[in-house]
Structures are given as structure tokens and as C-alpha cells.
Amino acid sequence: MKAIESNNMWYFRRHSSISSDDGDDASIALPVDQITGMTPGPSNALLRIYFVNLGGIHNVQTIDATQNAYVQLNIDAGRAREVMEFLVQAANSKTHHQGYRTIFDAHTGESAFKHIKGVQNIHNH
Amino acid sequence: MKTDKWLYFRSSQQAANTANDDGIATDLNRSTSALYPASRLMHMKPVNDGTMRFQFQGMKIPHASDVTWKRSHGQAYDIVQVEIKDGKQKEVMEAVMEAINSPSGDGFVVIGDDSTTDIESKPLIPQYISHHITSTISPYVWETPQGNGIHEYYATLEATAVDDNDACASFPIKLPAQSVILEAAIRIFSDADNDIGSVSLKLHSVAIADDASSAGTEIVGFDAATRGEESQVEKSTLTLDDPFASGNSITSLIQGKVITQDFATSSDNTLKLYAAQIAALPSVATAAITVVGSNQTGTDDRVIVITGTNPGDHIQIEQITITGTSAPDMAIAITQTAFENYYNASTPPLDLDISSDATAIKGIHSGPIDPIYRGREETHFHLCAKEDMKSTPVTGKPTVGVYIKWWGTAATALV
Residue A97: pLDDT band by 50, 70, 90 thresholds? Predict the structure, then answer.
């Protein structure tokens, strides 16, 4: 098995306005090796990517948590499997992206995959 | 992620059509599909001849929620099961390991996908890593730590703009009946933008929506009355609204013991026999009937006064049911509490200031509260506004960390 180094990261940004990119729930660069799994819900147009809690991102106080953190993606309805397949491919394509890849950026409108439509929520308290 | 292989499961129990691949709203501990890094696979094992289990480190629950010495059956791991042809456990395990260790493929390993129709109603062919797998069972992706024993849960809540004494945020779990609340705390995580806002923590038997009038018992805050002093024997009164009728049967749970009494000769005599059973409990000193009419053979005795044996001991009386035709109701009332006074054990004994000038006190702990036995009631928690946060709305994102510790079984996730 090929091990993926910890500097393989995915980037997510929720808001189209750059002035809103100012808090824990606004954007995140997520180390792929911290992902614990993915599962759809609570609708068929949402997919959660769970990861080990990073204790806050923007130098807010670090607190213990009893649940892992997650990024919730807006996706095309019923396309959870396709999105997960794409993300696995993305996790394995570090050589083409220097280990840093934008999955979705609402400010620039960039989406790494046609079925990924937005970032609904970033929960990392 | 230490490996480039990921293991995928989708069950037709809830998602035969990919349009239904949306989680399970009625059971947040399960899902319709799940993808795990292969590195989080803990083991595979048979459940029975025709079922095999994959066990993963928890997707939602962190590894830090170590259960050792805290809970029995308190798995902090997720479970996915597949139905297989009888006796083919080893063959399936071999196929899974071949796929995980294969240098080929894109890393997305479908262990089982039962779906037969896609979102556009086009047919799909179910996919399995081994032809010995016949179907996938909805994955257990635990939302809350499981098991019996000591539990802790922490969540951050954003206080909303509500009236004084309204609920302004709800804890995302509820506790099952029979829980014992041991400890609680609240701490400001992010202040409001303006000089508005203070909150306390309350528990209640039902959920209270934001902006609805608060109810229940305050356990952290200025008005919490959580510690008893000057112990005394507790007295409770059980009152029938009508006499027992022939064929009635009363069942109750008192101090955890089931007490049943069938109708015997007369209503008064039935009540007498029932009271005698209560009086036999070691924590009960007396269960005295208020005798009306100088006899216990008619229909006019209605009241039992239960007196505890030891000062300070609470006598838990619950689940009284009377069955049969023309069954009366029996009301429960504590007429003398186990302590003469209750004081606020919160440390410090204040509400939590969440306003922009909240500079001095950042956290309030329940302090040494008397454990709160919830009996047959479920337990919900909410933050209660302790000032008007609506006329001049609290602004910003005032966020409060809430911690609960309890003895009992697993909580249920609400969101």
C-alpha cells in the first residue's frame, strides 16, 4: 500500500464574499490523513466528511470535543457515491496537485467535481 | 489516512434507489451508506453463518472517547455487516484483503452496494467485492458514545435572540429514562458583539424550542437549587381519585422494585395490602393509610403517606399503572422533601454573561450537586436566557460550550 503523506490537504470555503471568510466555520484546509470517513445525510444532496477534530482553526481556544469535526458538502441529489469516488481519486492524485487541492471555493466558484455544488457547513469546534 | 484504499458500503435497506441515499432520519446512529479509509478497519469477524461484520474506528466519535473503565459494551467503533452465503466468511475476508493490498484500482473499493436504481431511475447492478456477499446491512455510524456506565458529552451552542426566560439554544442529545445527572458546566466560547446576554443551563423532560418559554430545572446558573442541606425524612403521598373496582390491578415501581397488587375483597383492603408491600421496603419506615370511616373494608380510603427511613434519602416512586374496568388514577406528590433547604451549588453561583463585556467570569460549573435521578423521564437540556435578549437583539455569534456527565445508558442524537 502506498502511504499518503500528512501534507496532502483539501481546501473548502463556504462564502462567496471574501469578507465572510473570517471564522472557524468559514473555510478550512483539511489534512486528508485526518479523515475518519464519509456518509450522506440528512438529505440526498448533502455529504459529510468527518475528520479528527482540529480544535478550531483560527487561533480560537482549543477545546476537547466528544464528536469528530466535519465538512458538509452540498452535492447533486443522489450522487453521494460519485462524489465519494471522486474524493478518493483526489486523495490519490497528490502528484498532480502538490498535495494541496481545492475541493470547493465559494469565493472563486471553483469546484473540483461537477457534482460538488457548495460547502453547507464546517463544524470544527 | 495511511492508505490509499477506501471501503464503501451502501445498503438497500434504506437506499435501493440512490435518491434515498440520505441517511436515516429516524435513527441517527445509522446511515444508508458509508466510506471508511481502509486504515480504520479494526477487524472482520463472523456474526453467524450468514452474516459478517466489519468493525471500524468511529467515523463521528473520536478515538479519544476511550471507554475503558467507564462503560460496559461501550464501543467507540462503527459496525457494518454484510449478508453472505453460509460459511463463506474466510473467502470474503480474503477478497477484502486482496482488494486493500492490490496495487491496481483507483482506491475506491466497493465492499457492497445494493442499489438497483440511480437518481434518474436508470437500473444499477448491485456490486460486491465477493460473489459470496448477497446484501449489505445499513451501517452503524454511531452519533453518540454507546454503552452502560459513565457518559460525558460536550457541544457548543449558539445563543439566539429571545425574550427573558425563553430557551435560546438546545443541547443536541437527549438522555434516556433512568439516567442520573452527575455534573454539568457551561463556558463562554465566543462573546456577543453587543452588551446583551446572559444564560443558565436547564434540564427538562421534553424539548423546548428556541424562543419558547423555558421550563424545567435549572442546574447551572443563578437560580439553580441543586444541593440539599438540613436533611429530614422525605414524605410522599399517593392519592386515589376513585376506589378500586373489582378486577383492577395496580403496578408500580418504588425504589426500583416492582410492586403489584390485585383487587382483593374491597377497595380499602386492596389499598391496605398494597401499602403493606410498600412498607416492607427497607428504605420506607411507614406506608400509612389515612383510614376513613373507622374501617378498611369499604371504598372510602384513598390516601397512603409514605415516610422514608433515613433523613436525606429520596424515595423514587414511578410508573404507577392501574388496569381493569373503571380503573382509578393514583397521583404522586412529595409532601416533605428529603432536605429542608436546597441551595445553589453552582460555582460561581451566577448566570453566564455572554455579552461583549463578559470579561471576568468565563465559565460556570454545577459544583457538588446532588445526583439527579431522572426516573422514567427522558432528559433534554437547553440554555435559558436570563435577560431580555430580543428587544435589543443580541448580535454576533455568542457561543457557549456545554458539558454534561451522567450515569446510565447512551444518549440519543437529536440533530
Answer: low
The answer as to CATH 2.60.120.340 being correct for domain B149-226+344-413 is: yes
Q: How far is A101 from chain B (nearest CA, A)?
A: 16
- The count of residues in chain B is 415
Q: What is the C-alpha to C-alpha distance for residues A58 and A24, in angstroms, rounded to an integer?
A: 6
Residue B386 pLDDT > 90? yes
In Å, how far is A113's CA from the nearest CA of chain B?
A: 16
CA distance B277 to B186: 44
Residue with cell string 455510524? B141
d(CA A13, CA A27): 4
The closest CB to that of B101, out of A1, A34, A78, belongs to A1
List the domain boundaries for chain B.
6-136, 149-226+344-413, 234-316
On whether residue A119 sits in a domain, the answer given is no
Which residues neighbour B123 within 8 Å (Cβ) at sequence distance 6 or greater? B116, B117
The rounded Cα B247 to chain-centroid distance in angstroms is 37
Number of domains forming the structure of chain A: 1
Give contacts of A 30-59 with B, CB under 8 A: 32-46, 50, 52-53
Cα–Cα nearest to B238, from B274, B205, B283: B274
Bridge partners (DSSP) of residue B353 are B198
Band of residue B76 on the pLDDT scale cut at 50, 70, 90: low
Domain range for A54? 25-105
A115 part of a folded domain: no
Taking the complete model, does pTM exceed 0.80, yes or no? no
DSSP E strand stretches across A76-115: 100-105, 110-111
| Residue B388: predicted pLDDT | 97
